[in-house]
Structure formats: structure tokens, C-alpha cells
């Protein structure tokens, strides 16, 4: 008997319950198709790479599971959700293929050498939350349709070669928290639409060529913690309301063309500040006193503006201070106690960089300077009105790599305790009133690369211990009262590549033959001393030498028989000026008589008197060109030697066939 229709229906219903639902069948089909799309997209990306030095992309092949590929993460549907190619040293271009990874949420391409342009297809990645392509070689413009990636929270394209303007449509990315476009080649203005990014915490547009004013709309970024717009061409005044963004931790608009005054209460309005930089602008007014109450401050950079007035009290509150730079303003102090604010900074135990140079600060360096932070790395005091002596306690700053006190009125001797600064690389004491001898302890500064002692009243001999400074690149001890011979040890410093200037002293004795060991030095100035003897022919070993000022002086001595130190040269009259006054018409009046009367012979033949006189004029011209007072105007030593060789060769070509 046939089963009843009711029983048949019950059996069929039971069988259907054992089968997966049809929607799941469709989803699996879609996932399989998507896997193929993602696979092809990544294989196309791999093909566009010119090099993969780490071999990371080797695992990307047809025979392996896409979700097992190196640096690839899939979601539960086997679709690529994260692609992390950070720091692999990849070269090549991004290409349009990534735009097919429709489920991609995180894309990390930073720290490679990718070039080309960002493809506009990236605008189709509607699930994308993070796009980081920083530190590459990417050029072209920012794709405007990135605004379609409405889930973006981080967009970092910094440190590339991206050009053009910032698309206003980026202001549509309402979820964006981090926008970094710094260190590119962007032009135009900062779009006002950026002010619509209410979730933004970091805005970095620094080191571009952006112009125009800072848009007032940025005041709507109430969550902003980092505002970095330094090193651009921004103009005008900072919108006053910008200082109401109380969440700001870093505020940097250095190196622009901004002007106006910083509000006196900025420290109260921005209580969370850690870094505040507005150097290299045209700001006026005084240093806001309230800033010295922001105890979280680590870095204050105000240099190269037109700030005036005294340093406000309260520096002692800044215990977390790492950098304090007020250099090159018009900051004033007066009296012997004018630098006592340095004592307040001894509370800043993390201080590494202190720059007060280029101001109108007057006073004596306090003994408490030795109690500054043991981390102090750079200390600039130059170009002020500082007087008094250098305290011996300066030797306690054991981490100092740079100490510049040049262009002041500091007197007394150089304390030998300076020799305790074993990390010092640059010592600037030029143009002061220092006296006494150069301490031999300076030879302990074995890390020193630059030594500036010029323009003082230092006396005695040059210590031979300077030969221990095996890292020295430049030494200038000119315009002092140094005497004695030049120590041979100084000429063993093969590291000297820039300058050896000992001019305008009272140094005597012959020029050591070891001068030829300075094979890398560019300029040697030993003029205006009492050196004697000849220049060793081995000076030709100094293959980098361009300026040898003593060469011109010695050449002039040779042809005149006079010394720059002769009694007849006093006041404004120097050997060079005496010869120049007679050159060329009355040259015979100043030349050594033997040169003008005795015949010159070569190879048994006599040089004609006319050619002899012409030769002397040419040689004198070379000597005068090498002995000019301005170093920049002096003839290059290579050119001088070339000209002298030409004079000699020309002379020999015109011998008269007169047999003696």
C-alpha cells in the first residue's frame, strides 16, 4: 500500500533538516571566489616587486594556502584582513592590485623602498582601518578618493616624496585619529576641512612646503594631542583659540614665517604640554612666565625669534626638562648675578640640551654650573655679554659633547679641569679675553673634533699634548700671543681635514717637515708669525690642501729679502701692503737687488732681461694673491702651484741662444 502524502512529507522534511541551509552554500561559494581574487592580488603585488632581500615573499605561491603566507592574516572567511610588509627592504611599486583585497583592514607598507604612486584603487578598500606607507620613496599625489575609506583611523604617508596639495576630502574621514603626512613635498594650504576630523589625536604635516595661514578650524579638534606643522612656509599669526586645545601634548610650529606674541597664560591653557617648539619664526614679546609652571614640560624651543625681556622665574619647577633653547633672541640680564637662572636649572636632572647663546645676557657663570644635570650633552653660551672667569666646576659636566662660550668677554685662564670633559667633541672659546697658557690637560680630550681658541690673549707655547687629539678635524688658535715653535706632534694629526690656523701669533722657528703628513687638510694658515726657513717640497703630499696662507708670505719674503716682522713694518704697513703699493710699475724698488741685477741662466743659456722682469712680476702677482688679508680672497694653493709651474715653463721656452 502506498504511503500517505502526510507520511511522505514528514520524511522529506526530516531529510531537509540534515542538509546545510542554502545561504551557507552561497556563502562558501562566495568565499572560494574571494580567495582566488585575494590570491591573484597578492601574486600580482609580488610580481611588481623588484627585490625582496629578506625572501619573505617566497612563501607566496600557487601551491600553498593563502592564509599561511608570510605576513598575511585572514579573517574567518579566509579573506585577507591584514597585510604587514613593514621593514622588508622591498623595492618596486604598490600597483593597483591591492585595491582588490576588499576585506583588508590593516595595510602596513612602511620602512621599505617602494616607489611609484599610490594607486587610486586603494579608495575601494571600504573596510580599511590602517594605511601606513611611511618611510618609502612614493611620489605623486594623495589619491582624493581615500576619503571613501570611511573606516580609516590611521593614515600615515610620512617620509616619502608625495607632492601636490592635501585633498580637502580627507576631512570626510570622521573616524580618523592619526593623520601623518610630514616629510613630503606637499604644497598649497592646510585645508580647513581638517577641522572636521573630530576624532583626530595626531596631526603631522611638518617638513613640507605648505603655505598660507594656520586655519582657525583646527580649534575644533578637541581630542588633538599632537600638532606638528613645523618646517613649512606658513604665514600670519597663530589663531588665538588654538591655545585652547587643552589636550595638546606636543605643539610644534617651528621654522615657518609666523609672527605675533605667545599668550602669557599659555601654560595654564595648555596644562598637558610636554614639547612646545616655535623656534625660527618672527615671534615677539616675552617668554610666557606661565610655561615655567607646566611641570610636565620636557622640551622648550624658542630660538631665532625676536623675544625680549628677562628669563622669567620658575625654571626650577621644570624637573622633567630635557631641552631648553632660547638662543638668538634679545633676552636680557644684567649685573654679575645675571646668569643665576642657571642655578635654578640644577633641579632639572634630565637636562641634556641648554642653549642661551646669541642674546644680551650679562653676568658671571656661577660656580653652580657644575651641578647641572649629569646628562647635559650640549651647552651653548656664546655671543652674549658674559664676563668673569670660567669656573673650575665646569669639569664636572662629564657628559658634555659640545661646549661653546665664544664671542663673550670671559677673562682669566682656561681651567685645566676642562680636560676632565672626556666626551667633549667641540670646544669653542673664541673671541674672549682669555689669558695664560693653553693647559696641557686639553690633550686629554681624545674625542675632540673642533678646537676654537682664536681671538684671545693666550700666551706661552702650544702644548705638544695636542698631538693626542687623534679625532681632531679643525683647530684655530689664531690671533693670540702664542710663541715658541710649532710642536711637531700637531702635524701628525692625519685626521685634520678642515683647518689648521695658527696665524697672528709670535710663533718662531722653522716649519716642521712633518707638515706634509697633513694629507687631508684643506686650509693651513700660519701667516703673521716669525717662522723661518723654507717650505718643504713634500708639501705636495697634502693632496686636499687648497689654502696655504704662509705660502704667499714666504714667496714675498723670498723675492724681497724682507720679513713681515722687520721693524719697518709697523702700524697698518705690512709686507704685503708695501709690495702692493709698488706693484707692478715700481716693483724693482721693493725686490731683492740680486734678483733684478744678477742674470738668470739655465742649461748654459741666459734668460733675456725682459723675460726675467716679466717672470718676477708674475711670481710677485702669485705671492700677493696668496697673501691677501681675507682668506676667502686668497688664491687656492693648487692654482698657485699651477701658475708658478706655468711661469717656469713659459720662461724656459723663451731662452735666448746666448752661450756663456
From TrEMBL:
For this UniProt entry, which residues form the secretion signal? 1-27
Record membrane topology: Single-pass membrane protein
Any idea where the Leucine-rich repeat-containing N-terminal plant-type domain is? Answer: 38-75
Q: InterPro entries from the entry?
A: Leu-rich_rpt, Leu-rich_rpt_typical-subtyp, LRR_dom_sf, LRR_N_plant-typ, LRR_R13L4/SHOC2-like, Plant_receptor-like_S/T_kinase
Could you name the domain of life of the organism this protein comes from? Eukaryota
Q: Does the keyword Ribosomal protein belong to this entry?
A: no
Disease resistance R13L4/SHOC-2-like LRR domain spans which residues?
A: 96-233, 380-472
Compartments (UniProt record): Membrane
Gene Ontology, cellular component aspect: membrane
What keywords does the record list, in alphabetical order? Leucine-rich repeat, Membrane, Repeat, Signal, Transmembrane, Transmembrane helix
PANTHER family for this protein:
OS04G0122200 PROTEIN, PROTEIN KINASE DOMAIN-CONTAINING PROTEIN
- Please state what the protein is called: Uncharacterized protein
Organism, as annotated:
Musa balbisiana
